Amino acid sequence: MRSLILEAAKEIFLKKGYFETSMRNIAERIEYSPGTLYLYFKDKNEIFHALHEGAFQKLFEQMAPLEFVSDPFERLKAMGKVYMEFARKNKDLYDLMFIEKAPLDIKGDKEKMEMTCRSFHYLQQVISECQAKGRFKGKDLDYLSFLIWAAMHGMCALYSRERMDVITDKDPENIMKHSYQYFVNILETV
User: Fold this and answer.
1) The predicted structure's pLDDT at residue 140
2) How far apart, in whole angstroms, are the C-alpha atoms of residue 103 and residue 105?
3) 22: domain CATH number?
4) Same domain, 21 and 68
5) What is the pLDDT of residues 9-26, one digit of tens each?
6) Which of 25, 49, 56, 154 has the fewest CB atoms in 10 Å of its CB?
């Protein structure tokens, strides 16, 4: 039942947005009474949080094999590819994780942002390992981590929201692939 609720909620959140979705909408979609949902979730925010957390967990699972890449810069590059592939294959989840506006306030409830923080700290850890090996000398860890995340997120957000048609003569997949390689080339010089 929990999975059924989450799947229905995901569809409705993506179609209507967080603020226009209600527990009643979700209940109607699965053809149960709204009271049934409250047996599994306190409110729609808790449902959204469960979807958010599940999406991050899926991303972490795909990143897990990279722990065995010994060169941290190679791991960083591979992380970028996995991140882009995740966004490409899971546009709906990527949207829920990073684009859909919802009350996931880090100041008000750190637990609800734990997965986002965990992913950012993992990025910082790998960049720190790169610095220990002589890369990114003299660069502030927070600024560089944010820059890398923002660049990756920007490419993935534009792709997932299908905003790449400004480049009319190229396939979005190729734009992503080549743009990522250009980004890596820039990182190699930093």
Assistant:
1) 97
2) 6
3) 1.10.10.60
4) no
5) 999 998 998 889 999 999
6) 154
